[in-house]
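Thread amino acids onto this structure.
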């Protein structure tokens, strides 16, 4: 069955970015001139995804507004002959987007469970907004390609520094990967550093079969007293195979301040309007640092 649907959880409170997130959704923070969630939506489109469900929460209405049409703005740009800007604005409206609100944040697993009726009996992808991926082939497309071969759930993983494994879900691989695909014995959410089964962390892309909903409906709270998606995936792995695909591209974590800053700089260095000035500025201030 073709993978057509994606779920983007975006209901978090964004407390790591307070006070900025007091009145603005974290997903709307711009990387130069593009909200972070737009990078995720664009990856989905490039991967062949047709329908996207965004799970939102209180204060997230600007996400819906961003992907809606603004006739007054479009007409103004058209009248002034600003065709390039008009094209940019219209790019965010040509997408099949749906929204549902998670009234009470009970964890990532609970947010994904809210997509049950949207997904139905189809395989689907979950795309986390804190992770911006860059590779020749979009990571979501890589997972879809894996599914077409295995017809099994597949998560994206990447090696992280050992001292940081307690921030992630981590896999316990059975053996060395075959062509970058791991068989997995166990999936562990936020393990203690000294007990982590590997340094292979689950990063923000999941391709899941619809049986995951049966697991989520009966999943007990885990780390942080929340419904953890990783715990449900570990249970799913006991009744059907779940693989891990090692990502070799670039991952930018915009979920914390320094990661967001690094991503802005990296993207700025490729942005046609600011890259030359930014390079010159970086060289200038680098010469003044100790």
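Threaded sequence (290 positions):
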């Amino acid at each position: 069955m073709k993978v057509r649907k994606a779920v983007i959880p975006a209901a978090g409170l964004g407390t790591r970015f307070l006070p900025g997130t007091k009145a603005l959704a974290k997903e709307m923070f711009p990387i130069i001139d593009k909200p972070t969630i737009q990078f995720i939506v664009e990856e989905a489109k490039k991967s062949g995804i047709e329908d996207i469900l965004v799970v939102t929460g209180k204060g997230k209405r600007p996400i819906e507004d961003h992907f809606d049409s603004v006739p007054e703005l479009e007409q103004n740009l058209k009248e002034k002959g600003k065709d390039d800007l008009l094209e940019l604005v219209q790019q965010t409206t040509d997408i099949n987007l749906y929204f549902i609100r998670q009234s009470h944040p009970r964890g990532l697993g609970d947010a994904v469970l809210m997509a049950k009726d949207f997904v139905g009996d189809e395989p689907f992808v979950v795309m986390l907004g804190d992770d911006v991926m860059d590779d020749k082939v979009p990571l979501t497309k890589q997972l879809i390609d894996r599914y077409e071969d295995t017809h099994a759930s597949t998560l994206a993983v990447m090696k992280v520094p050992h001292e940081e494994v307690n921030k992630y879900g981590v896999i316990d691989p059975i053996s060395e990967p075959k062509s970058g695909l791991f068989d997995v014995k166990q999936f562990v959410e936020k393990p203690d550093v000294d007990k982590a089964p590997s340094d292979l962390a689950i990063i923000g892309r999941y391709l899941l079969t619809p049986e995951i909903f049966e697991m989520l409906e009966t999943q007990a709270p885990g780390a942080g007293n929340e419904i953890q998606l990783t715990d449900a995936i570990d249970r799913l792995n006991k009744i059907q195979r779940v693989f891990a695909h090692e990502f070799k591209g670039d991952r930018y974590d915009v979920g914390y301040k320094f990661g967001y800053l690094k991503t802005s700089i990296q993207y700025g260095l490729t942005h046609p309007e600011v890259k030359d000035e930014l390079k010159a500025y970086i060289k200038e201030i680098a010469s003044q640092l100790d």
